[in-house]
Amino acid sequence: MMACLTCQLNLQAQQQKSRLNIIYIMSDDHAYQAISAYGYGLNNTPHIDKLAEKGMLFNRAFVTNSICGPSRAVMLTGKYSHINGFIDNHSTFDNKQQTVATVLHGVGYQTAVIGKWHLISDPVGFDYWNIVPGQGQYYNPDFIENGVSKKVEGYITNLTTDFAINWLDKRDKDKPFFMVYQQKAPHRNWMPEEKYYHLFDSTQFPVPANYFDDYKTRTRAAHQQEMEIATHMHFGYDLKVPVDSALEKKTGPGPSLQGPLNRLTPEQRKKWDDAYNPIIEQFNKAHLSEKDLAIWKYQRYMKDYLRCVQSVDDNVGRLMDYLKQNGLEENTIVIYTSDQGFYLGEHGWFDKRWMYEESFRTPLIIKWPGVTNKKATSNQMVMNLDFAETLLDMAGVKIPADMQGKSFVPVLKGKQKGSFRDAVYYHFYENQEHKVAKQIGVRTDRFKLIWFYENNEWELYDLEKDKNEMNNVYGQPAYKKVQEMMMKKLKEKKEQYKDPVTLN
Q1: In Å, how far are 145, 330, 394, 399, 420 from 408, measured between CA atoms?
Q2: Mean pLDDT in each 10-residue stretch from start to end of the chain (504 residues)?
Q3: Whether the predicted model's global pTM rises above the 0.90 cut
Q4: Which domains, from first to last, does the chain contain?
């Protein structure tokens, strides 16, 4: 009996040693358009691109619910928001439920979560956690390390990596590890690292063709939102330019930048003022027309947003260098993604929430040593609903039957026959900040149907003919059969995922 027990323990030890390590990197609000590997030409992200050079880049990775906390809860549980209970950013995550971390921990993985958390309750299933409360602060942020809060001097993107590398150094080297490494950046209010204050100073970014979208064929939802750069972006908090009350009346005073600025040390504040005071002076002298002001706001937004992205990319490089220098590069899977997509001026917007492509799609790059050995691109439709299942499958661990997604390991291995998924289902619940209407919808390879259920209004898009989703064809006779097919598909997916929302 003892011999059998010894054999079993030896087998478990061998399995642990043979399992690959996993690093899951999630940035906050990182648009796929702002990763140079995706080819949009806005900026250069060489370190993230290196992951794609020996990994698989997904062109059609989607989220179930395009907002920060719910997206994280879906990734952890492999379940839709209505099942895991975290439907919006005002929810509290039930940390007693099963997650990918608890499952991996149960089979011998050493686990850690570092950086952004945004789920209110304490992390469970992690041997170590060092998280920021709420959204976190860019400069001199607070961190909560295993329940103990402390203020740490420095820039949050760098500090998150410092803590990640420190944990990797001190971990139990005899166990495989699963590390969830989550950056605050480039979340609003886009305060760049001081070394990048002048990056893009001489750059004029091309204004998106639909920046001045009039939402002509769209339903009330598009007209009632409050996320237009030209109209709703705050001068002080977002654009770092305090202005006279006449201009500020259009957006309202908004949240104050003073709190974040008060966190800066005198030396940090001097560098900040040296960088931003000339911008304030130039703006006050310009007296811009309404259209020119809208374009000026876009440029200001893009520069600070992309400056924050640059620090994210630097720190991906730092983490990858650590793996290489410590002999971990060839036995560690690395996933890079965001909690959802983000608008960089398309439709005139910033933020996320909608089922339109820019917010519904998320960047996803996976480097799996021995499997993704050269650059590959996938157009298969995968979801953040599938992340937990895929991570478990890559680790050789049985996927719990109650998870709602499915492993896309066959896609990564090039063995997927036919379509991985015929359609993706979406549900957004929160009609508060930015006044984006609650919505459900379904997307197939070519078509997308959205129902704004509080308004009882529908939109249908032919993505082959209208990739920018400017022309709502719902109710048009030419699309009668398509509309019927998409209605049937929406009902089918709603029932498959047990969503209790009632269809009219």
Answers
A1: 33, 21, 10, 12, 7
A2: 54 64 98 98 98 98 98 98 97 97 98 98 98 97 98 98 98 97 98 98 98 98 97 94 73 82 98 97 93 97 98 98 98 98 98 98 98 95 98 98 98 97 97 93 98 97 98 98 98 98 89
A3: yes
A4: 19-190+304-418 (3.40.720.10), 425-496 (3.30.1120)
